[in-house]
Design a protein that fits this description.
434 Repressor (Amino-terminal Domain), mainly alpha, 7 helices
Length: 90
């Protein structure tokens, strides 16, 4: 399982926010942010959307996921230099 807590903490820290500051700006409790960063609980998709929107990033970026590395269907549609070959099967 992916370490979502580390990814959430990374985003908060690169935006130079304390848990308390992030809580005030997003209306998410500081306690929840702490739980998520310690992997005690996993945030709901709604809270992930709220955080991603606040940071101005995608949900994939929020949780440290690169779809080209994790999805065999999509990965196979990219050439070695990272360009798309035109065959995406979703």
């Amino acid at each position: 399982m992916r370490n979502y807590g580390e990814a959430l903490k990374y985003q908060r820290e690169i935006h130079e926010l304390s848990q308390t500051e992030l809580a005030k700006r997003t209306q998410i409790s500081q306690q929840n942010i702490s739980y998520w960063e310690r992997n005690t609980y996993v945030p709901s998709i709604e809270n992930c959307e709220k955080l991603a929107d606040y940071y101005g990033i995608t949900l994939d970026e929020l949780v440290g996921r690169d779809f080209r590395e994790t999805s065999p269907t999509v990965k196979n549609t990219y050439t070695n230099n990272g360009t798309h070959n035109g065959n995406v099967n979703f």
